[in-house]
Design brief:
The chain has 654 residues and is α+β, with helices and mostly antiparallel strands. Helices cover 28% and strands 27% of the residues. The longest helix is centred in the N-terminal third of the chain and has 33 residues. It is globular. It starts with a helix and ends with a helix.
């Protein structure tokens, strides 16, 4: 009896164990359907979020542009011997679209239709193939959803799916295909395709527009410190992170708008790479010598601005700026919500009480007629135009233009037209949740202004008080940089950051091509990672027969050229400087701290070029190169890296 009882108990234990395993597996698959991000859905479904990109054997087909609300055909096929194929997207609240089980003798080619509804910006589709070898292989496709299709209505979501061809989907949950960005978080960031290495033998020139914006650093700080989460990958713009900080650069001592500082040395993250740092520095600001300003504050007072970190913070921030204004300056305030209106008309800069009363009278409510507000602001600015002065519209908003002329292209066309008349546009961003970073960056770029993100009063003081000259007063416009590398010394290079500022090489000498502006006291920094031309790192391209360089015996790594225009002129001027391995105008602390910033950005973006770099390494390296750090910003970066390490450890231990 005991023998039979023991056997029965043993068998029941086995069955219970198997049932538990099955329940756990089913629970993981259920969790995959409710996961918010592609990475977490993959983790639940496959046990890992790591996949090898293989566009040759995993083919994901979808149109480049889809009509908003239309049924979009998507096809996934593979030549890999597969167990399962999953399709993900990054728009709706849950990432997993469908899963196909692949039969041994079936043709792994599947079709599905998805109705895409978006508030703007591209949507990323990801196909993941689980091979019979147990490994994961992937391919991605970005689809731009054209606005102007069907209304989202109701709950704000639409779904459409058809049975996939030659497929078997999991029966535990029906396929529901949603492609609408979450109602609770509709933030939008422009897609960044990270710069890769280029062979000098075939691409010796690198050309880009300068960028003095700093919004990205302030945004990622807000995500890490206030939100306790990592920022979206495309919110991390490394050039803006680097340009947030002060460096001990030399100033110009002649009539040129800036001095070109350079240094070359070892890269922190790859022993086979070197770094070239280029730093442009303008003269420090003497506020008493600045020309008169005609400022029009264009303020978003719509319902979306009611949060404490939006309109209330905006009002306090502008009060800091008002304290710096002089009698010869003029201030107007235009507001917009369902309609736009003029709250203050051409007050003197020293009428601080009057200006502050106008600011304090503002409250949030209604929808957002951003287009109408910008038109009125420009009309007011043109009416109060100061000859040879600083005429500028300062737009403060979360960027959520949802009523009126909200087309980004239409707004940009208006702003480009007005800047030709001497009225520039700067943008201050506030808040989160519905933040439209892509729109505000585009507006500032086209308006000959700069773009900053204000998350605290300390940041407001930095942008509007400490760096007021750079924020409001332009010393050079349409500034372009072109670097020519010496093929005798450099095999390959890559520009770190500035992906949204790249220009065609022929645009460098074309004065009709728009580029970035630099303000008084501003500095611009660019980093190039490069590989020396030696026998250990052979080129992928055969040595060109007719392109031998006469500079082989020289120590010249590259030559940097800068084109710029005076703010009131339309013809550019040229500067140039040779870069050698002996250049050391930039301090050692600045050189390595700048690399720490870049390395931090690469880790946040999951860059392949970060190699084996880790957060603990960056923490120590940034502490060692912090320097005097008079304003405390470098110590803050160290704290951000520590916070990122903590969040990374928590994610890994989930």
């Amino acid at each position: 009896m005991n023998k039979h009882t023991n056997r029965y108990t043993f068998l029941m234990g086995i069955l219970l164990f198997i049932n538990t395993i099955n329940l756990l597996a089913a629970n993981l698959e259920t969790n995959a359907w409710s996961a918010v991000s592609t990475e977490s859905a993959m983790q639940y479904l496959f046990g890992t979020s790591k996949a090898t990109e293989d566009k040759q054997r995993v083919v994901l087909t979808a149109p480049d542009v889809a009509a908003n609300g239309g049924a979009v055909p998507v096809r996934v096929s593979t030549t890999i011997s597969a167990k399962r194929i999953a399709l993900f997207q990054d728009a709706n609240p849950t990432a997993l679209v469908t899963v196909w089980s692949v039969h041994e003798n079936s043709v792994p080619e599947y079709d599905i239709k998805i109705r895409l509804i978006s508030n703007g910006g591209p949507i990323t589709l990801t196909a993941v193939v689980e091979g019979q070898d147990g490994k994961l292989y992937s391919a991605q496709r970005r689809v731009q959803v054209a606005l102007g299709g069907c209304d989202d209505g109701g709950e704000g979501y639409s779904s459409y799916s058809t049975p996939p061809v030659r497929s078997q989907a999991y029966g535990a949950r029906p396929i529901v295909v949603l492609a609408k960005r979450s109602l609770h978080n509709t933030e939008e960031y422009k897609y960044i395709d990270e710069n890769g290495f280029k062979e000098v033998s075939t691409s010796p020139l690198s050309t880009f527009s300068v960028d003095v914006d700093t919004a990205s650093y302030a945004m990622l700080r807000s995500y890490l410190m206030l939100g306790n989460r990592f920022p979206p990958k495309d919110a991390v713009r490394i050039e803006e992170m680097i340009n947030y900080f002060n460096y001990d650069y030399k100033e110009p001592k002649d009539d040129k708008p800036f001095y070109v500082n350079t240094r070359s040395g070892d890269a922190l993250w790859d022993k086979n790479s070197k770094i070239i740092q280029i730093g442009l520095q303008t003269k420090k600001v003497d506020i008493s010598e600045l020309p008169a300003s005609n400022l029009v504050f264009l303020l978003d007072v719509s319902g979306s601005m009611s949060d404490k970190n939006k309109l209330p913070l905006l009002i306090k921030s502008l009060k800091l700026l008002v304290q710096q204004l002089r009698e010869k300056d003029r201030v107007s305030i235009v507001v917009y919500a369902g309609n736009s209106g003029l709250v203050l008309d051409r007050a003197r800069g020293d009428e601080r009480e009057r200006i502050n009363r106008a600011l304090e009278s503002l409250s949030a409510g209604g929808s957002t007629a951003g287009g109408a507000g910008i038109n009125l602001a420009y009309a007011v600015a043109e009416k109060a135009y100061i000859q040879n002065g600083n005429n500028r519209v300062i737009l403060a908003t979360d960027g959520d233009f949802n009523v009126g002329a909200s087309s980004e292209s239409a707004l940009i066309e208006l702003i480009e037209q007005k800047k030709k008349g001497g009225v520039f546009l700067s943008v201050l961003g506030f808040g989160n949740g519905n933040y439209k970073d892509n729109k505000m960056e585009a507006l500032a770029d086209k308006g000959n202004g700069n773009y900053s993100y204000i998350d605290t009063l300390l940041e407001a003081k930095k942008v509007l008080v400490t760096q007021m000259g750079g924020t409001l007063y332009t010393v050079a416009k349409d500034v372009k940089i072109q670097v020519e590398f010496n093929p005798a010394k450099v095999q390959a290079y890559r520009l770190i950051g500035y992906e949204n500022r790249l220009m065609a090489n022929e645009d460098f000498n074309d004065d009709k091509k728009d580029a970035g502006e630099i303000g008084k006291g501003h500095r611009v920094t660019a980093l190039y990672e490069y590989i020396l031309n030696n026998q250990e790192t052979g080129s992928k391209v055969d040595r060109l027969k007719y392109q031998t360089s006469k500079y082989e015996s020289y120590d010249e790594l590259a030559t940097v050229k800068i084109r710029y225009k005076d703010p009131k002129e339309n013809s550019s001027k040229l500067m140039s400087k040779v870069i050698t391995s002996k250049n050391n105008e930039i301090t050692k602390d600045d050189f390595y701290f700048t690399q720490c910033i870049a390395g931090f950005g690469m880790l946040l973006r999951g860059s392949e070029y970060a190699k084996d770099l880790t957060y603990p390494q960056l923490i120590e390296l940034s502490k060692d190169s912090k320097g005097s750090d008079r304003d405390g910003h470098r110590a803050e970066l160290v704290n951000l890296i520590v916070k990122a390490q903590i969040l990374s450890d928590l994610e890994r231990n989930k």
